[in-house]
Structure formats: C-alpha cells, structure tokens
Amino acid sequence: MIISQWILKMAGWRLDITVPDYPKCIICVAPHTSNWDFILGKLAYNAIGRKASFLMKEQWFFFPLGLIFKAMGGIPVPRKRGSALTDEIVRLMNKSQRLTIAITPEGTRSRTDKWRRGFLFIARDADIPILLGVIDYGEKIIRIRDTFRTTGDVDSDMRKIKDYYRGAIALHPENFSTD
C-alpha cells in the first residue's frame, strides 16, 4: 500500500477516490489507450488498501505470466464472440462474498466509438453498483468519486456513462472517443 502511494507520488499522480468500499462492484475505467492505464489503476486501488480483479485477453495467460496475472486478480477473456463471459461473471459475483472487477468498456487501446456493454449487464444482473473510474493524464489524477446504478435501459445508461468521461485526457487522446 505504502509503496503504491510512493510510486504514484514520485510519478506526479494524485488520487481522488471517495466512493465507499462496496463488497461487490464493477469499476468502469476510462480512458484506456495505453498499457500504463492498467499499471496506474492497480497502483491507485492498492494505494487505498483495496483489491480489484480485472479482465484481460486470454492470450496473456501463458506460463509464467498467467500465474502472475491470476495472482493479481486477472480473469482471462476468450477472444471468440458469443462466449458466456457475462453470465460467468454474474455467477462469480453472486457466489462471492467480496469481489471488485475493473473493466475497460472500450475493450481496446485503439480508438473506438462502440464501447462494450457487458459490464452494464453484469451490474444489472448481479445487482451491484458501477464505480466510475477516470485516469486523467491531463491533470495526472485518478478519480473514483461517483457510483452509477443501471436503470435497465442499456442505451441510455451507456450515453450517461460516456458523457461522464467526456473531457478526460487519455495518454493517447487520439485513441479516446466518447461519441
């Protein structure tokens, strides 16, 4: 915890994390345009004494990296479409006493206007909150101040979430879109 705080401070980053420590939740993290976002996010959450699992392409879970990522809370995501990942995560949430999963809805570090919606279905079906996490390179601040509850209207919820992130500065701004 102290090491994470020190690393972030030495790198010039500030934290503004004021949300409650929910036993179960999703952290929606954006912008996501660099692998540094993962490192900064892990350091930030660790700096406040909390743990979060994360989704990552299954290709990264080869030996020995797979052991490391799983120990850090990594959950492999299959590349093939149509997998039941959302349902599996809902089941995992329902059987866990405590579980936080950080998800980057952009699903890629490249520019995309179409954010993945699975996190909205997970939050709805598991009846858990979504924490809105921002990694803003312009201000060098990592914020998690707001909690979002799904309404059941996925299109409306996604518009509200994208609007929330409008104005955040990514490491590679040309790759971040809230359109």
Summary keywords:
179 residues, 6 helices
Could you characterize the architecture of this molecule?
The protein has 179 residues and is an alpha/beta fold. The protein has one domain. The protein is built from 6 helices and 7 strands. It has helices at 2-10, 36-47, 65-71, 85-95, 118-126, 154-165; strands spanning 14-17, 24-30, 53-57, 74-77, 99-103, 130-136, 141-148. A hairpin with a 4-residue loop joins β6 and β7. The mean pLDDT is 94.
Q: Shape from CA axes? A: globular
Oligomer: single chain
Total discrete domains: 1
Placed side by side, the strands forming the largest sheet appear as: 1-7-6-2-5-3-4
Quantity of strands, as a count = 7
Task: Name the helicity range.
Answer: 25-40%
Mean pLDDT: 94
Distance from N terminus to C terminus (CA atoms, Å) equals 36 Å
As residue ranges, the low-confidence spans are none
How would you sum up the major sheet? 7 strands, mixed
**Radius of gyration, CA atoms, in whole angstroms:** 15 Å
Structural class: alpha/beta
The proportion of strand residues reads 15-25%
How many individual helices?
A: 6
Order of helices and strands: HEEHEHEHEHEEH
Put the structure in a nutshell.
The protein is an alpha/beta fold and 179 residues long. The protein has helices at 2-10, 36-47, 65-71, 85-95, 118-126, 154-165, and strands at 14-17, 24-30, 53-57, 74-77, 99-103, 130-136, 141-148. The chain has six helices and seven strands, in the order H-E-E-H-E-H-E-H-E-H-E-E-H.
